[in-house]
Design brief:
Elements (H helix, E strand, L loop, with lengths): L1 H20 L20 E11 L8 E5 L12 E9 L8 E11 L7 E9 L8 E8 L6 E10 L6 E11 L6 E11 L1
Length: 188
């Protein structure tokens, strides 16, 4: 008898909850990917060069927050970027996009950067599409550094993957650098 009373009470309570809400509210629901124009997922590889130009008359990387006190690792420094992405390591190579965002020196004991940027492509079928990077670049302590691709837009909707970065060249006088990026990304 007690169990029937408990069941009756739970049923009444559920009706009360529904009547208070007025209607069933849906926050999310399954969706057929074809409704968004998504086709078969594919894996793509992109290779390009990232030109971090700090010096000269037209820098593409500008310090917006200086490092804290006398930090040997430049801890706290934030640099805003609008760096060209090219097919080859020379600045005269064909530009395929821009790296736009910032990097911040985020470690006190070693040189390591928080990288927050979009690769905004301007070439071919990828024109207007972006890939978003958010991750740690441990500077010069590793020959190959890896950062996650966390998303994208247009042709890279629902993108995920990773970017491998190596230093192609670095000028200690100007702090200008050319980095080779190999990006592996799943997308539709």
């Amino acid at each position: 008898m007690a169990s029937k009373l408990i069941i009756f009470f739970l049923i009444i309570a559920s009706f009360t909850t529904i009547s208070v809400l007025g209607e069933e509210q849906r926050f999310g629901s399954p969706l057929d990917r074809k409704l968004l124009g998504l086709k078969k997922e594919k894996l793509s590889h992109f290779r390009f060069y990232f030109h971090d130009i700090v010096g000269g008359h037209n820098p593409t990387a500008v310090q917006v927050v200086p490092p804290s006190n006398k930090s040997a690792t430049l801890f706290g420094q934030i640099t805003m970027i609008d760096n060209p992405l090219t097919l080859g390591p020379k600045s005269s190579s064909k530009t395929v996009g821009k790296a736009q965002g910032f990097y911040a020196s985020a470690a006190q004991q070693e040189v390591a950067f928080l990288m927050v940027m979009n690769f905004a492509f301007i070439e071919g079928k990828y024109n207007g599409s972006t890939l978003s990077i958010l991750g740690r670049n441990n500077g010069g302590s590793s020959r190959v550094r890896e950062m996650p691709v966390i998303g994208g837009s247009r042709l890279f909707r629902f993108a995920r993957g990773y970017a491998e970065v190596t230093t192609h060249s670095y000028d200690p006088k100007t702090n200008d650098a050319v980095l080779e990026y190999n990006v592996y990304v799943f997308h539709y």
